[in-house]
Amino acid sequence: MKVQKMIEHAAQLAAKARDMRFLKPFAGETCAPPPVWLMRQAGRYLPEYRETRAKAGSFLNLCYTPALACEVTLQPIRRFGFDASILFSDILVVPDALGQSVRFVEGEGPRLDPLTGDADLAKLSIAGARSKFETVAESVSRIRAGLPKETALIGFCGAPWTVATYMIGGQGSSDQADTRLMAYRKPAFFARLIDLLVDASVGYLDLQIKAGADVVMIFDSWAGSLPDDEFARWVTAPTKKLVAALKAKHPHVPVIGFPRSAGIASIGYAKATGVQGIGCDTAMPLSLMAGDLARTGIVVQGNLDPLLMIAGGDAMIRRTHEILDAMQNRRFVFNLGHGITPEAPPSHVAELVKVIRSYDAT
Ligand code: CP3
């Protein structure tokens, strides 16, 4: 890219970061205290979420009704004043919109009719996904209009690998064995599925950005299950393609990658994919976050244990201080290492935000 253009994009981001604390680390600043938001911050631990969820009937209906999706996105912002909100949706909206049957079974999680080969793939259509993607984009514009101007809005999608594990396996699993076997046995078919997901995700995130998302995040929840050759092929390469296509359209919009449980492979991912931020899961050592990961030059986000949101009290405060101490003078965003769970009392979240905002490193 021409140097002149790069300077213009950096200036555009810096101008936005003046009003939005969340964007400051992405514009090259270190903040004390750092910006904070929590994965799954709109969810069942909030009574007002449970009320709106009941009104919607099914979970997918909540995702596809802009007034309700907007309402649950704004709920945690009203309560806790996080620096960023995240669009309320799900990574499985993409297979659903493409035409695969997706259901959410109460108490069990998602269920899909598994793809077995090219005949199933032929039934999926990016053109057909357009109207559902536009419904989600309508949620994004409503949310942006309802947010305070200093609160950033994060759009998101699942990474091709993680979404593929649900499309092939038909449900969540602890080792993704069905999908890993499929990738070994039918690599050409699997590559076509991954390519379709890259293209669909580019279109989906492009619509979210045009509708008002300030940042986008790519959730790769099952990135940790692959050996390094397969990680390079199914995690790093498709993510790099997705990021390059997005940056060509929206050069100043930061992209955060979250290769969960990838451990030391996160460093290569941070360098190779072109993301501007990297999410760290609970098991990522603080020494690596503050050291090699921070030195890659991108923003580091994470990684308080979600169980500490249930425990609360001294254990939560002590670890929060450890994270803040370790990440001082780094371009850092405070978050959990994975989503907050339904058992977390909202009072502990309020306490966490207070502890972070009153942190004084001296
Ligand atoms: O972070 C947020 O607040 C935004 C909303 C969001 C949801 N899912 C809402 C949701 C986001 C970013 C996701 C991402 C997602 N969804 C991932 C990647 C991140 C991760 O958690 O690893 C994955 C793997 C999914 C797939 C998914 N969706 C599963 C496995 C489940 C069932 C498990 C569960 O927690 O119930 C869901 C359902 C889901 N997605 C819920 C919410 C609030 C709970 C459903 C309900 O309210 O009935």
Which ions, cofactors or small ligands are bound in this entry? coproporphyrinogen III
Structural domains: how many: 1
Shape: globular
Strand line-up across the major sheet:
1-4-5-6-7-8-9
Return the string of H and E elements.
HHHHEHEEHHEHHHEHEHEHEHHEH
What is the typical, i.e. mean, pLDDT? 97
CATH topology: TIM Barrel
Number of helices: 16
The computed structural class is: alpha/beta
Can you describe what's shown?
This protein is α/β, with parallel strands linked by helices. It has a single domain, classed as TIM Barrel (Alpha-Beta Barrel). 53% of the residues lie in helices and 12% in strands. The chain has helices spanning 3-19, 47-56, 59-63, 66-80, 93-98, 118-122, 126-146, 160-169, 177-185, 187-210, 228-249, 265-272, 286-295, 308-311, 313-326, 346-357; strands spanning 84-86, 102-105, 109-112, 152-158, 215-220, 255-259, 277-279, 299-304, 332-336. The strands form 2 sheets. The chain has a 7-stranded parallel sheet. It has a two-stranded antiparallel ribbon with strand order 2-3. Strand 7, helix 13 (286-295) and strand 8 form a beta-alpha-beta unit. It is globular, with a radius of gyration of 19 Å. The model has no long low-confidence stretch (mean pLDDT 97).
